[in-house]
Design goal:
By secondary structure, the chain is of the alpha+beta class. It folds into four domains: 123 residues, 2-Layer Sandwich (Methyltransferase, Cobalt-precorrin-4 Transmethylase, Domain 2); 62 residues, no CATH class; 174 residues, 2-Layer Sandwich (Heat Shock Protein 90), CATH 3.30.565; 60 residues, Winged helix-like DNA-binding domain superfamily/Winged helix DNA-binding domain (Arc Repressor Mutant, subunit A). It has 17 helices and 19 strands. A six-stranded mixed β-sheet has the order 11-10-14-15-17-16, with helices on one face. The protein has a four-stranded mixed β-sheet with strand order 1-2-4-3, with helices on both faces. Strand 18 and strand 19 form a beta hairpin. Helix 10 runs antiparallel to helix 12. The longest helix is centred in the middle third of the chain and has 15 residues.
Length: 454
């Protein structure tokens, strides 16, 4: 690989199969171990987290040290190393003798992170997952003419990937090619007609009168790509749940009966972690007394570990959602859901079977809503801190006018909201042509869009 191709690879950014390292250090051992236990990957040494090349000088001692880290795994694994100018490119193959263990323990690649697992946890994971992952399988009927160009370009924009890179380069480094042919994950994200290939990829939504499915008030099935299915299902849910209005003086605070952060996280979990080899669908059901989201596929670990272990049967799908800023970098979703629901005094239950995962959240009754409206001034003030989207976005614009730039973290800390909610606000302002996204990788910030006529 030449320096130009290395540069293109760096522009793709870190992810499920790409890791940046400033220098050769002992941490390489766990990264090699994690890639070997997952789908393999590339470690680019001499690059910081922002994707900028650091001026390092590498020699044969560095190459030997890297080989030692690979050889010292149990069992050992062979890696290939290229030295191109001031950069080292380490190719780690998917291991054929899993699980692998480094001197620090067992590691597995989860999204853009290398996560430590115990021996029993990683063995159980490998026993439960399919030997050939659905997302990596080739669909011979699907070719480049079936890719929706608009979906592809929109994804590159959201993931901050340069449009100057060739399509084949991007697809390869997003793990959407298997043996140089488009795989199932490519169809799920960029197919013109996803439903034609996978009837089970749709999301079925139902609104019912009472607490059973006997009387259907509304039914909707979304049959598009994974991102559009998520966006449209989320809006459908918003339209069916009750909205509470907390009044203080002349101000009105809008509040969905089940927090939006919870709905987003539950829906994303169902899409990302479902078993696509199964015939079932992701199902959303709204009853008078409860809200349910279910998906085919059991947990890959003991249910007692729910919230403690982050493991996915669809690492490519998870990585693509992460790059597009839909999911968190680490598996913190379940614990965040529990925390928010407990704070809102909403009962919830995780129902786990051998082939399905379901989450049930209780809905607030009309009496609950009336009680909230008559709360003390102290409690009303607490509710009002959870500013609605309109006020958050105005605060973002005001902050940019005074400070010049802002990060997702600034918004989360100010309003005490999830990363995905802050991203949604920023995304809306970008679509409204008010702000622009700057930077790449872990160093992303936002600025006001300059008026070219001025």
């Amino acid at each position: 690989m030449d320096f130009e191709k290395i540069s293109e690879l760096i522009k793709t950014g870190e992810g499920y199969t790409i890791e940046f390292k400033k220098s050769v250090s002992s941490s390489l051992s766990k990264e090699i171990c994690a890639f070997a236990n997952a789908s393999g990957g590339k470690i680019i040494i001499g690059v910081n987290n922002d994707g900028k090349i650091v001026k390092n000088e590498f020699d044969n001692d560095d190459l030997s040290q890297i080989q030692d880290y690979a050889n010292n795994l149990d069992p050992s694994i062979k890696v290939n190393i290229d030295m191109i100018k001031n950069v080292l490119l380490v190719y780690v193959p998917e291991g054929k003798k899993k699980p692998y263990r480094s001197s620090r323990g067992f590691y597995l690649r989860v999204g853009a992170n290398s996560q430590k697992l115990s021996r029993d946890e990683i063995k159980e994971l490998f026993q439960k997952e399919n030997h050939i992952k659905f997302e990596r399988k080739i669909s011979f009927d699907f070719d480049y003419s079936e890719i929706d160009t608009n979906k592809y370009k929109e994804y590159l924009k959201n993931a901050q990937i340069s449009t100057n890179l060739s399509q084949s380069h991007v697809l390869r480094n997003l793990n959407l090619l298997t043996d140089n042919k488009l795989n199932n994950a490519a169809i799920l994200f960029f197919g013109k007609n996803v439903y034609k290939y996978f009837l089970n990829s749709s999301i079925i939504c139902g609104l019912y009168k009472g607490n059973s499915k006997n009387n259907i008030l509304d039914r909707k099935e979304f049959k598009e790509d994974l991102i559009n299915n998520f966006e449209k299902t989320f809006k459908w849910i918003q339209s069916k749940l009750n909205t509470n209005f907390i009044i203080k003086g002349t101000k009105r605070i809008e509040k969905l009966e089940i927090p939006e952060e919870v709905i987003r996280e539950l829906l994303l979990n169902a899409i990302v972690h479902r078993d696509y080899m199964a015939n079932g669908h992701v199902q959303v059901d709204i009853f008078i007394d409860r809200f349910e989201i279910s998906n085919p596929g059991s947990l890959l670990f003991d249910k007692e570990e729910l919230g403690n272990i982050s493991a996915t049967r669809n690492p490519i799908i998870q990585d693509l959602m992460y790059r597009a800023n839909y999911v968190e970098k680490i598996g913190s979703g379940i614990n965040r859901i529990k925390k928010i629901l407990s704070k809102e005094k909403l009962n919830y239950k995780f129902k786990i079977s051998s082939n399905y995962f379901r989450v049930v959240v209780s809905r607030k009754s009309d009496n609950d809503f009336l009680e909230e409206k008559s709360e003390s001034n102290e409690n009303r003030t607490k509710i009002e801190r959870k500013s609605n989207a309109r006020k958050r976005r105005q605060w973002i614009l005001d902050t940019l006018k005074s400070k010049g730039q802002i990060k997702n973290k600034d918004i989360r800390e100010h309003f005490d909201i999830a990363k995905s909610t802050a991203y949604e606000d920023l995304k809306n302002l970008i679509e409204e042509d008010k702000i622009v996204k700057k930077g790449s990788g872990s160093n992303v910030w936002y600025e006001l869009k300059m008026d070219k006529n001025k």
